[in-house]
Amino acid sequence: MKAFITVIGHDTVGVVARVSGLCCELNINIEDVTQSILQGMFAMIMLVDISKCSVSHEELHQKMDALAAEMGMQINLTRQEVFDAMHTI
Fold this sequence. Notes:
This protein is of the alpha+beta class.
């Protein structure tokens, strides 16, 4: 199952390392990533495979929310089929 992880907030050292570290810890494979710094704001989108994630979807969201709070950033996880359903004409 594919998902998108989006990260937005003030640019700081270690953002990619912390998010990718959590993915590694939870057995989430990062398949693609793009990132930019826009006027001092960090923006990243990761395409990940969560099919072998070691925790439930609820716990995954809780862990992402906790990391976001620690870093003072916004982190969202959206399953690809949810995204596809929202954009079906």
